[in-house]
Design brief:
- By secondary structure, the chain is α/β, with parallel strands linked by helices.
- The protein folds into five domains: 193 residues, Double Clp-N motif; 196 residues, P-loop containing nucleotide triphosphate hydrolases (Rossmann fold); 177 residues, Rossmann fold (3-Layer(aba) Sandwich); 231 residues, Rossmann fold; 110 residues, Orthogonal Bundle (Helicase, Ruva Protein, domain 3).
- The protein is built from 40 helices and 20 strands.
- Strands 3-5-6-7-4-8 form a six-stranded mixed beta sheet.
- Helix 14 runs parallel beside helix 16 and helix 19 packs parallel to helix 21.
- The longest helix is centred in the middle third of the chain and has 55 residues.
- One of its GO terms (cellular component) is cytosol.
Length: 965
Amino acid sequence: MTFPNFEFTDKSLTILASATRLAGNMKNSEVGVVHLALALLVDDVDLIQSEPQNWPEPELPTFFWSLISKQGVQPEHIVRVLKRLIVERPSTPLKDTQLPAKAPGRTGLFSIFKRRPRSSPGPQSLSPNPAPNVDSSPRLSTAFERVPDVARKIQEQMHDRYIAPDHLLLALIQDDKSEVAIALSENAVKISDLRGDITQSRQSRKIMSRKAGSHLEALNKYALNLTALAKEGKIDPVIGRDEEIRRVICILCRRTKNNPVLIGEPGVGKTAVAEAIAQRIADADANPTEGMVGKSVPDSLRGTVFSLNMGALMAGTSGRGDYEERIKAVLDEIEESENNGDQVILFIDELHLIMAGKQAGGGSGMDAANLFKPLLARGKLRCIGATTLAEYRECIEKDGALERRFAQVMINEPTVSEAITILRGLREKYEGHHGVYIMDSALVTCVRLASRYLTARRLPDSAIDLMDEACAVIKVRRETVPEELDKLRRKVYRLEIDQKGLMRDGSDQELLQTAQRDLASARLELLTLDQKYENEKKRRDRIVNIRKRMGEIKGRKEIAEKEGNISLASRLGSELKELQGQIKQDETSPDTVNPEIIAEIVYRWTSIPATKLLASEKEKLLKLGDTLTQSVVGQPEAVRAVTRAIQMSGNDLTNGSRPIASFLFTGPSGTGKTLLTKAVISFPKLQRYFKVNEFQRSQLATFLFNSPDAMVRIDASEYSEKFTISRLIGAPPGYVGHDQGGQLTEYVRRKPYCLVLVDEVEKACGEFCALFLQILDDGRLTDGQGRTVSFRNCIIIMTSNLGAMLPNDKGKRSECQHRNQVMEEVREHFRPEFLNRLDDIIIFQTLSTDVMGEIVNIRLKELQERLDRKKLTLDIGDEAKRYLAEAGYSKEYGARPLERKIQSEIVHPLSRLLLEDRVREGESVRVRITLTNGRRLCIVPNHNAILNSCNDGQRDVDEGLNFGY
């Protein structure tokens, strides 16, 4: 088939031949525009006679098919519609003598339809799928005759050399009243959008050869057009990175090996650099000669940036060679575009994935890198890769032939000031998406808190995520029931269930009355919050209506200004100012992202209290020393040191590059070293001895840390051998358990705000203390997998029994001498560089009998809390307390024997009395001194024994009749 006077691409010729063959297959007397539309829509027109659901899935959909799918219309339905139009046409094939001769005046394309010679075989003798034969072709319809002429005009307007398939498609739908346009419009296809999509898909490419295509089918299927997204404004603006972007542009302009690879940690903005290139190309296309925008990229880069989706390439490649065929199709289109003068820049995020092709095709595939190498070396492929340093070293550097074809561009983490500028550039995008207002101070807080507390992540990604979630929190609060109201409703529901259960049982009237009071109070609070929420909802609805009206007025004002109606534009401007004043009155802080919201998000992520201290919290910090003294008695120096460290942390005055505090507690056993550590975690717990319920206790607990469990305890005696150190940071690669992480580093990674307690540190090997040097100095530690773990939000406390055997007589002189002796022993055991990095070395003094009375009171209060569960009241006299203070004290073991004495002489006998029903719930537990068989404690029974019991332990009760008071 020849086409004089018309310059068609090979693809266009194939489509025209397919339209002719389709008319013959359907036994139509004419080739119409509907045949051409179907040939543009379906590659294999021989499938038209069957139903679309029976077609095999095409490897690549046609351009027309993709455009219809983009509008949300099923292309299969359009095929049925067009096929119905063909079936309705005349279907009686012409006899040989009836075939039209060459029409007078026909030239060019239409001269090819000639009379078929009598000697040629008839249609019935042709193969099932005959090749197009001009002698047996049906005649052309009048509408079809106009298509090439219209397509040539479109070709000339687009400055192309050849008529491509998109020219034919535009010619078919140029007239809204054409048969194809009407059929598409009646089936939900928007013709205007279709024309725009066809024009936009071309970008700046020109059809300068017969082999050129109007679109890149494989690329459009397996890649994302970043340049098109940039022109549509769907890419976030890229702020900064000017030096890196210019370096990438320079590499892309090289003659060979013009392939930059962006290397950096996750979240530093590697993908943003590629998007910036696409944005600059889009700006250059929009303003080719105006100002600096037109000069942001050289003319040689004025093409299209595609982001290759490696997952889409590998998905579904179950057969051998499927993956390679897809890669080859993409590379062929890129090479063809380069030969035609159309620049295509391929961006591959996660570049190391091109080395993973062996897993495709049932494990029989090959790496995509081997297919990329020839084009990369010849400069036929401009490729921008992006990967992390670890993955580049692991995957790319191992293949020297691939590595030498890329030029490295390091993308470092931006500074705090640069990250703030980046967030300011993104602010409008997030404000528009969430419908909130972001304060500038909130942006600064995002970056500051992210750089300090989210140390496992990198700027600006961590700060952007903070800002995004803060906006989402405000949006959710605005559009849903407030969290406070939702919790209160659930609380009322739980209390109603409790009340019904207690009323049904009827056994505990006191609990029932308490539940009724709590329910009434909660309902009253719920009523108040409901009214407040309704008022807030009305205010927000009013804001939405005002904004909607402002948008309408702005549109009318712009039209009036264009039409020159000054008076109307002025009046509309006045109305707009009035509405702006109204919305300023209604828009309040609930719709604003402020620094407090950012700090709240940080607290949710890390449990670090980054919010400003409230007045009540400041008061707690000021009284911290007194509170700790109630729990840890006889150690004023230790309490003062810990109090100072916590108060500095609460005011954010600690050194940001070191842990919050690091102490070495040393002294005799049983003097309160570990107890003080636990008190630091939950020092307000002493308030539980006041009249508070269980819910209030959980709220009062843990002012400094989020949970009493926020402590990792390391027994240094388990690390007395050098080879055990790997348990702290994790085994190195190649050893058993290397993928499990270390006991210390994994805990701190999960809970960065915690307390690290190292018990009996003097029993560990020397390498153990050496490991803590960088923790104490720089606040960081590298685990077995090469990850840096931050300890800057931790408190490090180490305990030691050094100096426990030294004599410690009372008196100022002896205390000073004892301290010097203990310090001398500490210096002999630990290295100077280790001791020099500690904030303080605290020597615990040997407990005296004077403070044992206070310790007894604390332990008895803890016992009373356990008895509260049985509604028992502990009744113990002063004489019994003095006995416990004397019997529970040991100069060698400190106060540890006290717990054993309470267990053996109070708790164990009480458990027997409860089993024998001689002490019952709701009664008093009377503890007295007995002189029988020696001076000891005894519990006085309240009732005679009902149940039989053995004689074991009976003397703890029965012989307690001779009381010594």
